[in-house]
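Please produce the structure of this protein holding nicotinamide-adenine-dinucleotide.
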Amino acid sequence: MSQIIYKNYIAGKFQSSQNLFDDISPIDGSLVAKVAEASNSDVDKAVDAARNAFNGDWSNMPLKTRCDLLEKVALTIEKRFDDFVDAEVADTGKPVNQAKLIDIPRGAENFRFFSNYIKISKTESYEMQHEDGSKVINYSIRKPKGVIAIIAPWNLPLLLLTWKVAPALAAGNCIVAKPSEETPGTATLLAEVVDEVGFPDGVFNIVHGYGPKSTGEYLTKHHDIDAITFTGESATGSEIMKSAADGVKPVSFELGGKNAAIIFDDADFDAAIEGTLKSVFANCGQVCLCTERVYVHQSIYEKFLEKFKSEAEKITENWPQKESLDFGPLISKEHREKVLKAFSTAITDGGILEVGGGIPIFDDKRDSGSWIEPTIFTGLGEKSDLIKNEVFGPVCHVTPFESENEVLKKANDSKYGLAAAIWTKDINKAHLISSKLNVGVVWVNSWYLRDLRTPFGGMKLSGIGREGGQHSLDFYSELTNVCVKS
Ligand code: NAD
Ligand code: 6OD
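Below is the modeled complex.
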């Protein structure tokens, strides 16, 4: 079979590059594809193409025509559903079932949702009276910002890329997007879809490459972009903010988390076990919303820990195509090194390894992949590294608590503020605790239930701004107020 090359998509054309880098499968370490690293001059061409398209066809296109194109993108992703699933699974190793149920349908839905949402979005208008008795009307007009630089991560590659691309395009912007170097596949397929659907050249550009001293850094420092939207690590967010500073470019950041789950003694026990297993181990713990700190009321702590451990031990690690697979590998061997380091630090700090902690042995090609065991720790103090720092792997620490005040204090004692899950049948308690948690998203008796109209994002090191519905449109547009005296 001939070697796949993932090319850049610039000004409506697929282009290779002098530098090709390897896209490696985390399943078995095999080569998935060669990827064309965009040079500085490729990024310049992409930004120029986006600027020309913005000044030309795109921002002047009637809203309905623009929205029809976005809807066609959703339909074409659905038409090529299996290609997208295969590419996402090859790059990430995630279970096929997960790619089929979450990643790819949500990738399509992001386009459909924003294509519809932009049509019902509103602006403000106010009436007042001038002192001379005449009427004054203020109204605001929404305008696209221009050229948006998009930097995306590897954990939910299509879902998180399109979560930014779709509202940016819907609002009338043109984009230059850099997917993660770990997961270039579905972004390249998305470029094929955009090409097939017939967008004007330059509206949508994909540039591949690394972050620091490569495509990502050059793009975010580019003088001719109008805003930067980024999802990834908090430390990378800090670097990108520095890149944005000289041009005072607006930034929208979805960053890391160290999310708590709080299980009260009146919770539906089985639902709390099932939900917490999902929130800790989904996508091999590589979702920014994953729970890494589990606080359980002391009256049910022993029972909870025993059941939680026995269910975690049943998690199966298999080839992605197998129905029985619950759990894929980590994204890379480098990332696995970081996760294993967090485990060894936890042990040095006095943590008790309750489940997992190592690398599974398969005696087949998967031993060359980046698999890891689902892992549970107990016994650590609140100041230890495992409780304080994001691991971004399939691991949590379980701690007993006695009172609401105590657990609130512990849950809030974090430099992050992304998400939390609360498990209780007492809805008044759920409302009260939710109002006191310093996070952007709280799930009550559930986890990762999404309504795309709601504000999504984090506080503190977890991000800047909110995305979703009106919040996305607010970032991707500027408002002009018009004051009319009659
Ligand atoms: P990362 O920060 O390493 O990389 C993300 C992207 O940034 C990649 O495309 C990378 O090439 C690029 N990049 C890196 N350095 C750059 C630089 N100096 N300038 C420009 N671009 C640069 O993140 P990751 O490892 O891909 O993703 C995992 C992290 O992302 C975790 O911390 C996770 O919590 C976070 N995350 C947050 C959310 C959220 O919604 N809050 C969602 C997904 C992931
Ligand atoms: O579901 C979403 O819209 C979203 N932004 C999820 C983020 C997941 C983080 O890994």
